[in-house]
């Protein structure tokens, strides 16, 4: 029979090594849990530590809900593209760089979006989407705080190009 401490995600060998290398308290060990979805996994780890049995097993649905909560919090509970208020039930996760084009499924590539904007964007690259819809790019730069800098740089470039095109159209 396994002891409960062996099932604790904080008892993994890599976390134990980090803790022995300088982390002095339980909180430091908890912060040592790393991965591509660090904060979402950390919230699940905290929930597992509070669970009565402490199993530490999570379904993919638990991880998806944690990622959605994290993306919603990072976007200020608003759609990253149109800035409409969102609730956890109505929010969808949008991959800024689409997975079909090599985007990762991690928090730096995920934003909260309403269903309409998520369908409107589809599998377009951010540059293409923001060039066609500059209003979405402006809101994206304001709302999505934790997205990778390169994605925000591309959004700013697309907005300025779209603005230059409209200025040329008015001048002609």
From TrEMBL:
Keywords: Endonuclease, Hydrolase, Nuclease. GO terms for molecular function: endonuclease activity. The keyword Hydrolase applies. The keyword Nucleus does not apply. Coiled coil: none annotated. Residues 26-61 are annotated as: Disordered. Gene3D superfamilies: 1.10.30.50. InterPro entries: HNH_5, HNH_nuc, NA-targeting_endonuclease. Pfam families: HNH_5 (PF14279). Residues 67-119 form the HNH nuclease domain. Transmembrane segments: none annotated. SMART domains: HNHc (SM00507). This is HNH endonuclease. It comes from Gemmatimonas aurantiaca.
């Amino acid at each position: 029979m396994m002891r409960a401490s062996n099932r604790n995600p904080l008892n993994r060998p890599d976390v134990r090594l980090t803790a022995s290398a300088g982390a002095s308290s339980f909180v430091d060990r908890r912060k040592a849990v790393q991965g591509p979805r660090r904060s979402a996994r950390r919230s699940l780890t905290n929930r597992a530590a509070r669970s009565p049995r402490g199993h530490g097993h999570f379904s993919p649905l638990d991880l998806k809900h944690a990622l959605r909560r994290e993306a919603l919090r990072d976007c200020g509970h608003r759609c990253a593209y149109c800035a409409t208020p969102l609730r956890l039930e109505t929010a969808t996760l949008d991959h800024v760089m689409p997975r079909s084009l090599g985007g990762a499924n991690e928090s730096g590539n995920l934003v909260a979006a309403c269903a309409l904007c998520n369908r409107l964007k589809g599998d377009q690259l951010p540059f293409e989407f923001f060039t066609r819809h500059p209003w979405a790019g402006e809101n994206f730069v304001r709302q999505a705080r934790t997205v990778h800098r390169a994605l925000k740089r591309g959004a700013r470039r697309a907005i300025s190009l779209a603005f230059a095109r409209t200025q040329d159209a008015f001048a002609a």
